[in-house]
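Researcher: Next entry in the queue.
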Amino acid sequence: MSSSLLEQFLQTAVRYVWNPGLLLVFLLFGLYLTIGTRFFQFRRFGTIWRNTMGGIFRKRRATGPGILTSFQAWAAAAGSAIGMGNIAGVASAVAYGGPGALLWMWIAALVMMATKMGEVTLAVHFREQLPDGKTYGGPTYYMQKGLGHLYQWPSWIWKGLAGIFIAGFLVMMFIGMASYTIQETFQATFNTTPWQTIIFGIIYTAMVYAVILGGIKRVGKVAEYMLPAMALMYILGGLVIIFADISQIGKAFLLIFKYAFTSQAAIGGVGGFAVMRAIQQGVAKGVYSNEAGWGTSPMLHATARVDHPVRQGMWGAFEVFLDTVVICTITGLVVIITGIWEGSGGGGGDVALAFESVFGDFGKYFVFLAMFAFVFTTSTGWYSYYETLLIHLFKNKSHKTILKAVKTLQVILPLPTFLLAAGGILIGVVPKYFWLLGDLSSGLSVYANLITLILLSPLIFKLVKEFEKKYLNGKTKKQEKDPLPQR
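Model: Structure for this entry, 487 residues:
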């Protein structure tokens, strides 16, 4: 199959998976949760801030079982989300969907703050505790315990949804998005040969092993220090580029709003098709970036030691805000203001060129460093998802069998992604093909998780109402942000 036919096939497949119906349901469901929680993410944004990033320097005693603190669980989950999607993914979205894709990312993110908060809340509510005190939860858990046990639906329903959800993860295990993206960025930054790039990929994979062999606890520890520092540095670097040519900011926003509803894409597309491409790229890449509705992050949030599910859910809402409204916006404006998006092929290389146009060689090295940190936390964070799914599959086995299964997973997991990425580098696969494959695989898990969230939405509303009544109503701001005893 020629490259043009392959691209056409993948684009067609992505359009079917991320069809207008799914995009509409995604947005409407986020709006439905927003209304059902009485616009919690807007009405209580101050509370969300005080209970998340606004309170990271306060010492509070974590209550309840778990593996990680709330901040560590968030850092690991955000590190899994804030990564290649925020840099390479946004550049690809603008290349394929035009500047208008950014507006659809914003719209989706604002309502999907409620979606992420809801799925994290369910993950913590339905999580299971092992004899050693560790907790695991996520979509497959609330499919079984919510649909199967609470609603008493036939087992084939929740098992079918869980099977589809897991199938999407198995596809992602072989696509190698993280490994390919960092190798592609390394090659674009240092102009290396394919074999030099693959040697770097081997070193990168060895570093991933060094973290995941320590399990979820080590994943959380690494993310706790790496993610905040790199996110802040990337935001500041992007702001320097944006304000270096401040006269272009107005033009950039004009392009964003204009081409959200009219045709303009760097890579082909005319008329209504280009507008639909902008919507599809904006929502699909938004989901890939902030992972709201995908069901990924809740598996890490379920490991947190927290007193109420909604308290951890607020970390999920903030995760979407920081990921998309802040970091994705920075990337989008950078590639639009510098003009790199026009005629580009997408991928992290575009962002490196944008930074290089302002900072010179330092710019591309800076982007590579940011990409490395973000993708590394993505690679290690995703290990936690596979461990969670594995624990659920083996939960009725002996403790010894579970330990063997986890050790096997730790050894095997990084290999398929590295091998496929190395193959892609050797034959010169361009980034857009990997991103199209990523959109396809994420769609499988999204379908299963979204159906489950819709069915369990009344419970989300109940838990949010319960949390507000118990912890927030009538409380002062100080009582809201310090609900737990000091250390």
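Model: The first strand starts at residue 128 and ends at 129.
Researcher: Noted, moving on.
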